[in-house]
Amino acid sequence: MGELSGHPRPIVPVKRYRTRSSVPKSEKDGFELRQDPKDDSDDGEEARNGLRKKKPGLKTHATSLAPGPADEESNTHSFLSLPAEIRSEIYQYSLIAPDPLAFQPAGTRKLPTAERGFWRFLYKDWEAQQREYAQHEPRLNRLAPALLAINSHIHREAADVLYGGQAFTFQNYAIAYYCLSRMGAANRARMRAIRILGQAAHGAGSRTRIAPALKLLADCVQLRSLFLGHRFMRPRDPHESARELYRDGYQFFREFGAAQGRRDAVLDVLEFDRTHLEDCGFLFGAPTASASTLRSEGQQCEQAVRDHLRALLEHDEPRNGKKTHESNRTDEREE
């Protein structure tokens, strides 16, 4: 043991393994790149001691084309420094579409219940009409709702233009409920024109969305135009149509009347759909009726619905058929 301790252990260099380069063979050039085993240019004291010196890599600096906070702030201040008339003109071009904004089911080529049973013929040309409209649809006028996300001041100015400067069209009551519920009460209060076509009013699930959709309209007290689909136009029983509409839209009618100072103020902005009475009169037992006769019957049906709805609004009868406390107090004072 003493003899062995007198002789130091020899230092064995670390064995290095040479491998081929990862560069693939080039068929065009006709040669193959290999690692030269005699090349020890990267060997040094670190390699012999079991360590390898790491080569310094190239330093890269990421460049971004996005403006910095100072640039964004200066751009915002420069926009707000413009006169109000010019800013309003910019909002008009950026946020108002030439045609009413139409909402339809995403990911589907046809309307819901468009080919179901008795109502199939009403929508048989819907796809062809959509393709024809798409050919004439303007491509250059793209809306820029991202303007509302710049700051609170621009949001207030732009939201009034986006929601109050154009009409919103919904294909049915289910889509109207889905979209209106996500707009928020503040944005619904800015809306001026709403159209609910009601193509799927006879389809699955849409009937249960009529009352919730009309309930969301209670915030739209500044409406100037409200178009409702043919769900409420029944020529055989216009009184029942008026009662059904009054029951589903009771809260909206009451809030709108309170804001306008008249209980029946909603009749000034309410429009009904009579086209199905004029174009499809044979549905109601009049297949040989002339266009003028159907038009006259449609007008009479609408007037009957309006008259009965006005009577319900003036008496302020709630959905259960009982008068409210305010109406009872009015009757007592009159007596």
Automatic annotation (TrEMBL):
Output compositional bias ranges, type Basic and acidic residues. 25-38
Q: What InterPro entries does its record include?
A: AN11006-like
Q: Region (Disordered) spans which residues?
A: 1-76, 312-335
What is this protein's name? F-box domain-containing protein
Q: Which organism is it from?
A: Dissoconium aciculare CBS 342.82
